[in-house]
Design brief:
Layout: E1 10-13, H1 17-20, H2 23-26, E2 31-35, H3 40-43, H4 46-56, E3 60-64, H5 73-85, E4 90-95, H6 97-111, E5 131-135, E6 147-152, E7 157-162, E8 170-173, H7 183-201, H8 208-233, H9 242-262, H10 266-278, H11 282-300, H12 302-311, H13 317-328, E9 332-333, H14 335-345, H15 349-352, H16 360-370, E10 372-373
Parallel strand pairs: 1-8, 2-3, 2-4, 4-5, 5-8, 9-10
Antiparallel strand pairs: 6-7
Helix pairs in contact: 5-6, 7-8, 7-9, 7-11, 8-9, 10-11, 10-14, 11-12, 11-13, 11-16, 14-16
């Protein structure tokens, strides 16, 4: 089988990497639009560091800080209008998956006119504003992917803009910006990255390269689990060491590189409904479904499940499920919801990307076994 690997994003890592590499911003243009949320980038210091770097290079900027969790189609059109009106040269994203995904859509729409009906078509002109990304969570890996995941109210789910055009130009990875994340957000985002690594290994597009990156990502995340459990048990104590923060950020980056090549699987297809309808955090939604999908894989491709469990240093699926429950807790689901979400999931492109393709009945069973059924 032919295999393909493409990663055009320049990645700069380490403490102070924004200030130490400020000249990279000058290569992108003379006026930037900073896309972020209302508060976190100010609290964690990333926005201050970024503005100092832009000032050092005499780059003008505007701040578009209207991005909330699970960004909508409307907000990227609004951001693109701001970029066009102000003759923006390039886009900077600071934050977790939501600001980064929104920034990709804004960069695309600021460079070309695309109707809402054609937004997810995959058919675009070869035009986009350059992008520089600063992730401040360790989960989505969006700083190195070709996906922009948006809330699509018409379809009542999340939908992806998927095109190589929206690979960011540069990514700056500095783990200190994740220091102030809560225990819950740290764990949910880490499990999101773990789902990317595992799903990458279960994709029909997996390769020797992506599997190697996925295994390393999973190993890094699992090495941080003892601190996660300790943080849950002692929430008032200092939670995570600087090395753990660094490992989680690198694991998220590696898993992002993986899904940029492989895409995601049934887990994401199912998880989107849990996020859209039940407002369960994306990483948590994926995490709660992982074990049961791995159990299905075990029945048809035990070699794959064994390889994944080995990367996580676990003996069996039950051990994995117990660990996930300890980290994420439980959520409820009704039979009516299972029926609705299963019908939606089976129609997604993610299902065709699975080495082990679940049926609608398999999906319903995975929902029932993963969540507490009412």
């Amino acid at each position: 089988m032919n295999q393909y690997y493409y990663m055009p994003t320049r990645v700069v890592m380490g403490d102070g990497c924004i200030g130490n590499n400020s000249k990279l911003f000058a290569s992108l243009g003379k006026k930037a639009l900073i896309v972020t949320g209302r508060h976190s980038a100010k609290i964690n210091g990333s926005q201050d560091d970024l503005i100092k770097a832009l000032d050092a290079e005499k780059i003008d900027y505007l701040v578009f800080d209207k991005i909330k969790s699970n960004p909508t189609i409307a907000i990227i059109y609004e951001g693109a209008a701001v970029a066009k009106e102000n003759k923006i040269d390039f886009i900077i994203a600071i934050g977790g998956g939501s600001p980064m995904d929104a920034a990709k859509g804004i960069a695309l729409l600021a460079a070309q006119n695309i109707s809402e009906e054609n937004l997810f078509s995959g058919s675009y002109e070869n035009k986009i504003l350059p992008m520089a990304f600063v992730p401040t969570t360790s989960g989505t890996g969006s700083e190195v992917t070709k996906y922009s995941i948006l809330t699509n109210d018409k379809a009542q789910t999340k939908t992806s803009i998927a095109t190589e055009l929206i690979f960011p130009t540069i990514a700056f990875l500095d783990a200190k910006y994740t220091d102030k994340l809560s225990v819950e957000v740290t764990i949910n985002t880490a499990i999101d990255a773990l789902s990317h690594a595992i799903e990458g290994m279960l994709s029909v597009k997996s390769s020797m390269i992506t599997n190697a990156l996925a295994e390393k990502s999973a190993q890094l995340i699992m090495g941080c689990v003892p601190e996660m459990i300790k943080a849950i048990e002692s929430p008032t104590a200092p939670a995570f060491s600087p090395q753990t923060r660094e490992n989680l950020l690198q694991a998220s980056f590696l898993a992002g590189v993986v899904i940029a090549q492989t895409g995601t699987t049934a887990v994401h297809a199912m998880g989107y409904s849990l996020t859209y309808f039940k407002h369960i955090d994306h990483g948590k939604a994926n995490g709660m479904l992982l074990a049961e999908y791995l159990r299905l894989v075990e029945k048809e491709r035990p070699d794959l499940s064994t390889e994944i469990l080995l990367a996580m240093n676990l003996d069996n699926v039950d051990e994995f499920k117990s660990l996930i429950k300890q980290l994420l807790g439980e959520e409820q689901i009704s039979q009516e919801e299972i029926k609705q979400y299963s019908e939606m999931a089976i129609q997604t492109a993610n299902i065709g990307n699975c080495m082990v393709k679940p049926t609608k009945e398999n999906i319903a069973e995975m929902f029932e076994q993963s969540l507490r059924c009412l």
